[in-house]
Design a protein that fits this description.
Layout: H1 7-24, H2 26-37, H3 43-205, E1 209-217, E2 227-236, E3 239-245, H4 251-268, E4 274-278, H5 284-292, E5 296-298, H6 307-311
Parallel strand pairs: 3-4, 4-5
Antiparallel strand pairs: 1-2, 2-3
Helix pairs in contact: 1-2, 4-5
């Protein structure tokens, strides 16, 4: 039984045996050659084709040579023109460079002169600065000496001033004590004189009676301790006006006056019709407190009006 060969086996046999067969058998060579003639040209045709191709290549080469020579001529012309331009530019550059070199040399000379002048000026200023430093040192020394002298004088002067101030303070305290005593004496005398004067004026000019009210406050209602209470009263037909006459009045004096009024009204069972404060010196706080408490305030006795008392006659 014969074994069937595969395509690969047949291909391998042809590749191995065909070259050997072509060498031994002329008939096989002719057969193979006839097969290739249908696909490939023979020697003559191939040579003709090569000659034609070579001729075309030669013509193309000649054309390219011609075009290259023309192009080269054009580039040579451009290069020559460019060389001329470069020669001109080099000439101009050399001229410009020569000018700049000349200017640079002149500038260097100027810088050398300026440096020389600067060094001279700097030397002069250094000398002046050293002289100035010496002067400042002398002035500082003199200033420190003068300042030390002035500080010493100032301390001595301060001691004298402090001594004078202490003496002034002592005198001031003495004057305050003396003036306070004089003021107190004057106040008491002025108030007593005014009461005597107002009593004489009222009793002579108006049908009223002025009297001093004295009573003992056993419970300390007015001063917080038992004390004698004194008030000046103006009386007419059963109507009573209370008046407080002082050289100066403070807010505390107003409060004390109000307590005296309450003491009188409670103790005597009499409602006072008017409450008067008469003083040439009364501060704003005391005046506001008095007015808000229903008290009439007068700076001088002449300001007091008794129209109500006069009309009731």
């Amino acid at each position: 039984m014969q074994t069937k060969l595969t395509k690969e086996e047949i291909k391998r046999i042809i590749i191995t045996e065909l070259p050997k067969l072509l060498k031994r058998d002329a008939l096989t060579r002719e057969y193979i050659s006839s097969l290739f003639k249908e696909k490939f040209a023979d020697k003559k045709q191939t040579e003709d084709r090569f000659e034609k191709l070579l001729k075309e290549l030669q013509e193309q080469r000649q054309e390219w040579n011609k075009r290259f020579e023309q192009t080269q001529a054009e580039w040579n012309k451009k290069w020559e023109e460019n060389e001329k331009k470069w020669a001109e530019w080099n000439k101009r550059f050399e001229q410009t460079q020569a000018e700049w070199n000349k200017k640079w040399e002149e500038n260097e000379k100027k810088w050398a002169e300026w440096n020389k002048r600067f060094e001279q000026t700097q030397a002069e200023w250094n000398k002046k600065w050293e002289e100035n430093e010496k002067k400042w040192a002398e002035w500082n020394k003199r200033f420190e000496q003068t300042q030390a002298e002035w500080n010493k004088r100032w301390e001595e002067n301060q001691k004298v001033i402090n001594s004078i101030l202490e003496e002034i303070k002592l005198l001031h305290r003495k004057h305050d004590t003396t003036i306070g005593a004089l003021g107190a004496r004057w106040g008491f005398r002025a108030e007593a004189s005014f009461r005597d004067a107002i009593k004489g004026i009222l009793e002579e000019s108006f049908p009223v009676k002025v009297q001093k009210y004295l009573a003992k406050d056993e419970e300390g209602m007015v001063f917080g301790r038992p004390d004698q209470i004194e008030l000046d009263l103006i009386v007419k037909d059963g109507e009573v006006i209370v008046a407080e006459i002082k050289s100066s009045i403070s807010k505390g004096d107003v409060a004390t006056f109000l307590r005296k009024v309450r003491f009188y009204e409670q103790k005597e069972g009499v409602k006072l019709s008017r409450k008067l404060l008469i003083s040439p010196m009364i501060d704003n706080a005391a005046k506001e407190f008095a007015l808000s408490s229903g008290i009439e305030v007068y700076g001088y006795p002449e300001e007091v009006e008794f129209k109500e008392i006069q009309s009731s006659n």
